[in-house]
Design a protein that fits this description.
Layout: H1 11-19, H2 25-32, H3 36-45, H4 47-70, H5 79-90, E1 93-99, E2 102-108, H6 116-123
Antiparallel strand pairs: 1-2
Helix pairs in contact: 1-2, 1-4, 3-4, 4-5
Length: 132
C-alpha cells in the first residue's frame, strides 16, 4: 500500500506566494517539508499544481530581474552575485566575442544565442551608439 500524499490543493497559494518573492524550487520544497522529487511528482500528477509552478517560476524570474534593474545605480549592489544567480537559476549564459578588437558581452536569457547583428539591433540606439 502506498503512502498517502502530503499534497493539498491549498498549497498552490503558498507556493505562488513564495515564488513571487524570488524563491527557488528548493526553497519551496523545504518550506513545504518535502523533497524536490515529491514536488516534481506532484507536477506530473496534478495539472493545476504544474500550472502553479510554471507561473511561480515566471514570477520568481521577474522578481530577480526587478532586483537587478532597481539596483543598477546602487554601489553596494553585488552585480556579479546577481548575474551568477541569474545564470544558475534561469539558464542565462555569458559569452564574450571579439569584433574589431572590441569585446562584446552577450548575456543571454534564452537558450538560443543571439547573432551579433541581433544583439546590435537590440542594444544599440538609433545612431548606432549605446541605448540608454
Amino acid at each position: 500500500m502506498a503512502r498517502p500524499t502530503k499534497y493539498r490543493p491549498e498549497m498552490k497559494n503558498e507556493v505562488l506566494s513564495m515564488m513571487q518573492e524570488g524563491a527557488s524550487i528548493q526553497e519551496v520544497s523545504a518550506a513545504l517539508g518535502i523533497c524536490r522529487a515529491s514536488l516534481y511528482n506532484w507536477k506530473r500528477q496534478y495539472p493545476e499544481f504544474l500550472d502553479t509552478i510554471k507561473r511561480g517560476e515566471s514570477c520568481s524570474q521577474a522578481w530577480w530581474e526587478r532586483q537587478g534593474r532597481q539596483n543598477l545605480k546602487n554601489r553596494n549592489f553585488n552585480n556579479h552575485h546577481w548575474f551568477r544567480q541569474m545564470c544558475n537559476r534561469f539558464g542565462w549564459r555569458n559569452y564574450i566575442r571579439r569584433h574589431n578588437s572590441e569585446q562584446h558581452r552577450f548575456a543571454l536569457i534564452h537558450k538560443k544565442p543571439m547573432t551579433e547583428k541581433e544583439w546590435i539591433a537590440r542594444y544599440s540606439g538609433h545612431n548606432g551608439g549605446p541605448s540608454l
